[in-house]
From TrEMBL:
It comes from the Bacteria. InterPro entries: LysR-type_TF (IPR050389), LysR_HTH_N (IPR000847), LysR_subst-bd (IPR005119), WH-like_DNA-bd_sf (IPR036388), WH_DNA-bd_sf (IPR036390). Signal peptide: none annotated. Residues 7-64 form the HTH lysR-type domain. The lineage of its organism: Bacteria, Pseudomonadati, Pseudomonadota, Gammaproteobacteria, Enterobacterales. Keywords: DNA-binding, Transcription, Transcription regulation. PROSITE patterns: HTH_LYSR. This is LysR substrate binding domain protein. It comes from Providencia rustigianii DSM 4541. Belongs to the LysR transcriptional regulatory family. GO terms for molecular function: DNA binding; DNA-binding transcription factor activity.
Amino acid sequence: MNGITRIDLKQLRVFKALLKERNVTRAAAQMGLTQQAVSAQLSKLRDTFQDHLFLRSAQGLIPTPLAEQLEPRVNTVFESIAALSPPDRFDPAEVYTTFVISATDYAVAVILPRLMAKVRTQAPGLKLIIRDFESDRLYPLLTSGDLDLALTFPAFVPDGCQTKWLFSEHHICVTRSDSPMQNQQFTISDIADLPQIIVSPTRANLIGSADDWFASKGYSRNIVMSVPSFAAAPACIASTDCIAFLPSRILPNPLVRPIQLDDSPPSFDVIAAWHLRSNQDPLHKWILSLLQQEFPAQQSANQ
C-alpha cells in the first residue's frame, strides 16, 4: 500500500459505486462516467492496495476480503467530508442553540428589543444571552468564542475585529424637566462651565465623548460626575443642576428636557463587531441580516 497517499476522492467514489452496484456498467451509469473511466480508476485502486478488490463472477463483481474491510473506513471518510460541508439551507426555525451578545445599556434599550422581536418570531428555539460590555476584554472574548457579537461604538472596538455599521446617532443636550434652561437658547460658551454628567460605560473616568468637540471650539467641560449607564443618567440629572449630552434614541425621557444650542457635537456611529471566525457562520449571518433589516442603510457619520 505504498501508493496510499495518491488516493483521491474520485477513486473512492468509484470504490463505493462498485460495492453498491457490483457491476462496472451500472457503476459507470450511476456516476455519469464511461466504463473505461471506471475501469481505469479501479486499476489505480488495485495498484495502490496490491489487491484485486473485486473479482468477476456469474453474479457480478464480488468484493475481496480486503475490499470488505475497507468499506466501513471509506464510508467514514465520506461521512467526515459531509460533516465539513456547509448546510444547503439555513432555516432559523430549526435553530436550537445559544447566541451571546455583548452590549452597552444603550444597545440594550435601542437595538435589542427590535432584534429580539424578530428572533422570537422567526427562531423561537434560539436563546440570547446579553452580557455587560467589556471593551478591554472584547477581542479575547470574541476570539475564544465566549462572545458571538458586540453592539457598541467604534471607539470601543479593538483592531482585528470585523464590523458592520448599523446607524448614525447624535447627542442632545438635556437638563432636568423643571429647569428654566429648557426654554432658552444657549451657545457652547454658555454651557461649557455648567456642571455636566457623562456616561462612561466601559471605564470609570471623567472623559466624555463630547470632550473633543468642546476642545475644538476652545473650551473644556466642567464634568462633575460619571455614571456607568445611560439609564442612570436621567435620574441624576433630574435631582441636580447638571446637564448632559445623551444619545437621541434614548429620548424622550420624562425626567429631562432638551436644551436649545446654537451648535451640536458631531454625529457618531453605532456598529456591530465580531471575530473573523464567524464570517461564514449561517446563524451569525442571519443575525446581522436582521439588524440590517431593522436599521436600513443611511449615511455613516464618518462618510
